[in-house]
Amino acid sequence: MADDHFDASADTWDLEPGKAEESRRVADAIAARLALGGRERLLEYGAGTGLVSQGLLPHVAGVTLADSSEGMRRVARGKVAAGALPAGTRVWDLDLETAEAPGERFDLVVASLVLHHVHDVPRVLAGFHGLLDAGGHVAIADLDTEDGRFHAHLHDFDGHPGFDRARLARWLEEAGFEEVAVEDCTSIDKDGTDFPVFLATARRP
Ligand SMILES: C[S@@+](CC[C@H](N)C(=O)[O-])C[C@H]1O[C@@H](n2cnc3c(N)ncnc32)[C@H](O)[C@@H]1O
Asked: Which of 78, 77, 73 is nearest to 7 (CA)?
């Protein structure tokens, strides 16, 4: 799917009903699952406006947001300027499907509701692995397999209709991760239908 949809949605993203609460629940689930010590360098991939990172601020030391949508990056930069995200928060233009992972290393890579928009998921997981220091964690929140209704309003959606948990776990192992765990995280209400969201976590050996 082109970035146009996210560029156009960026300014009103945080105002969408339920969006901030969903992101807060994802951040809380990550903080509850991983023993974060407050010194972690966080990279949020497909960060959008940075809502999940905002929820993780009490648990990490530094934040880098990465997204392929210029509109989302503009809103995220605005939050840094306004103080909603800490000074020093970096906003990167990064698409791991088409670019190599930068040389920098992090302790935590978070991807919330972005992987179902990615075509080559194993390639992006390999990118996450390369971005982590040994002992660092990846945390992926995404939709369980659904019947396509989640994106029915988008005529050009060409991503995944959610994920089979076992398949994603296998991809994580194949990317070199260990301690792979997948658990219930939250759910998203869309037009009266509840779509379950899982949290997958894993560690780079
Ligand atoms: C559904 S939004 C989720 C935003 C945020 N993570 C959240 O939970 O509110 C998906 C985000 O992933 C970004 N995205 C989609 N494909 C991407 C890719 N290949 N690389 C980087 N970002 C991507 C979009 O621009 C969008 O901001």
From this structure: 73
**Per-residue pLDDT at 1:** 54
Q: How far is CA 63 from the centre of its chain?
A: 13
Looking from the CA of 205 toward its CB, the CA atoms found within 13 Å total 8
Our answer on whether the CB atom of 29 is closer than 6 Å to any ligand 1 atom is no
Q: Which of 68, 91, 92, 124 to mutate to test the pocket of ligand 1 (most atoms within 8 A of CB)?
A: 68
Single pTM value for the model: 0.97
Give me the pLDDT at residue 167, please. 98
pLDDT in tens, 19-74: 999 999 999 999 999 989 999 999 999 999 999 999 999 999 999 999 999 999 99
Side chain identity at residue 29, one-letter code: A
* Partners of residue 199 on adjacent β-strands: 141, 183
H runs (alpha helix) in 83-192: 121-131, 165-174
Beta carbons within 10 angstroms of residue 144's beta carbon: 18
Q: How confident is the model at residue 159 (pLDDT cuts 50, 70, 90)?
A: confident
CA distance between the termini of the chain = 33
| CATH code, domain carrying 129 | 3.40.50.150
The total domain count for the chain is 1
User: How far is it, in rounded angstroms, from Cα 60 to Cα 179?
Assistant: 21
